[in-house]
Amino acid sequence: TQGSGMGGRLSCQLCDEAFYWLAEADFAVSPHVQRTFGIKGWFRFRDDILTIYSDFERFRAFTDILRSRLRNVWTFKAEEISIHSVAMLDVTVMKSSDGPSVLRWKPYIKPSNRAVPLATSSAHHPSVHGWPAADLARLARNSSSCGDFEAAKLHTIAHLVAKSHDPARILDAMLAHPYDRQSCMPTCLNK
Predict the structure, then answer these.
(1) Percent share of the chain, pLDDT over 90
(2) Coil/strand/helix, residue 76
(3) 170 CB-near residues (< 8 Å, 6+ apart)
(4) 81 burial type by CB count under 10 A (0-12 exposed, 13-18 middle, 19+ buried)
(5) Which residues contact residue 44 at a Cβ distance below 8 angstroms, ignoring those fewer than 6 apart?
(6) Is the dihedral of CA 151, 95, 185, 139 positive or negative?
């Protein structure tokens, strides 16, 4: 596979632009193409794509064309296919029992070591620099129910305490950090 250099300042933007013109501009985001292949939703952030489709055979034909369009630059593969739920970035999206067109979401906690604070020079989004307390606000935003938020919060705290060299410091930071409690409420409580 060819591509831009990892870690280069413009790598993400360059790849986004190239992917858009190779795969999306006149194909994946075209309403006509989406109707033809039964694509109900196409959601992309960088190299993570969530596709909702109505017919697997038409979806397979759609992905065959995408692979063909991208073959000299990238490998396009489905990492997860499910009729119930799928993880994208830090959210698990799932069908709701409220009807076929209703989706729920809850935090997807990646199996990575998040027990180390980011350096102040990190290029990560500013919202994660209030770690670990800011993580609670993120978990709340990524929850469509209070139960999902509570489960993710308890898992995160247990993970941080277990992985940390100074668990008391982690807990103190989470409890003492001045964050807006309203922003840490799941979507269901903000209505």
Answers:
(1) 25
(2) coil
(3) 115, 132, 160, 161, 164
(4) exposed
(5) 19, 24, 50
(6) positive
- Kind plus residue range of the DSSP H or E element containing 176: helix 167-176
Q: How far apart are the first and last CA of the chain?
A: 46
Residue given tokens 């993570």 in the structure block: 48
174 near 157, Cβ under 8 Å? yes
Confidence at residue 131, expressed as pLDDT on a 0 to 100 scale: 67
Q: Which of 186, 89, 191 is nearest to 137 (CA)?
A: 186
- Averaged pLDDT, 106-122: 68
Find out whether 30 and 101 touch, Cβ atoms under 8 Å: no
pLDDT of 177 over the 60 cut: no
Can you read off the two tokens belonging to residue 49? 């794509």
Q: Could you give the residue ranges of the DSSP H alpha helices within 45-88?
A: 56-70
d(CA 16, CA 73): 13
Q: Which helix (H) or strand (E) holds 53?
A: strand 48-53
Global pTM reads 0.66
